[in-house]
TrEMBL record:
Originating species: Streptomyces hesseae
Protein's name in the database: Lysophospholipid acyltransferase family protein
Stretches the record annotates as Disordered: 222-254
GO molecular function annotation: acyltransferase activity
Occurrences of domain Phospholipid/glycerol acyltransferase (ranges): 29-150
Length: 254
């Protein structure tokens, strides 16, 4: 199924790619990518000869009905691994465990250090728990990846994709073996994550924002809510003013 899906994506969207030579022909490696669109997990596997496993919500594999079965088959076909993400801590530990198992089999493991899709196309602070802990626990090299323009192919909330040609830049592997056995040190985890994010920023050309994407999404939602409330209040005030004016015009002269 990976071949059929990957072939269809390449034929339809013709994604360009730079740095394929940085992907090892064999052995474990972590591909750490920025995250612009739902389709990122499809375009990257499509341009690789080797299988790459990403983490996906368990709900994608357990939804009922024909649509649910088709969705599950699709995600399995492109190398998605179901993980129960109920509870923040449990989700993180499950993802780390799954990543380590994939790498111990000598395979490629894909991860989005930002933890969620960028809400506005900018690059956000990487979360230190998953990426760094998996890298230090396994000794696998970390390969930075930049997805380019995938948010234009399938903007958030849109079902049908646009026929825009996306791109992928793959950087040189990063070796963190100097930190072996130090995966319990939060300062080391932060340092490893920041180094990877810096390389992704250079590859992608994105503006970097030193807050988590989840916090940015909350902020954007709060601002949108406040704006809506202000517009509602202004509309109500306008209607009230119009009503008073109309009554004044209707008042008979003495």
């Amino acid at each position: 199924m990976k071949l059929s899906i990957g072939g269809s994506l390449k034929l339809a969207f013709r994604p360009w790619v730079e740095g394929l030579e940085n992907i090892p022909a064999e052995g474990p490696a972590i591909l750490a990518s920025n995250h612009l669109s739902f389709s990122d997990s499809f375009f990257l596997p499509a341009v690789l000869d080797r299988k790459i496993t990403f983490i996906a919500k368990q709900e994608y594999f357990t939804s009922p009905g024909v649509k649910g079965k088709l969705t599950a088959a699709f995600f399995k076909g492109v190398g998605q691994l179901p993980v129960d993400r109920s509870g923040a801590r449990g989700a993180g530990e499950a993802a780390i465990k799954s990543g380590i198992e994939v790498l111990e089999r000598g395979e490629l493991f894909g991860i989005y250090p930002e933890g969620t899709r960028s809400p506005d196309g900018r690059l956000y602070r990487g979360k230190p728990g998953g990426l760094a802990r998996v890298a230090l626990a396994t000794g696998a090299p970390v390969i930075p990846v930049a997805m380019i323009d995938t948010e234009k192919v399938q903007p958030p909330g849109k079902v049908l994709p646009k026929m825009i040609r996306p791109g992928i830049r793959i950087g040189k592997p990063l070796d963190f073996s100097r930190y072996h056995g130090m995966d319990g040190d939060r300062f080391i985890l932060r340092s490893v994550t920041d180094e990877v994010m810096y390389e992704i920023m250079k590859l992608s050309g994105q503006e970097y924002v030193d807050i988590y994407a989840t916090a940015a999404k909350r902020q954007i939602a709060e601002e949108a809510k406040q704006k809506a409330e202000e517009e509602k209040a202004a509309k109500a005030a306008g209607l009230e003013k119009a009503g008073k004016t109309e009554k004044a015009e209707e008042k008979p002269e003495a």
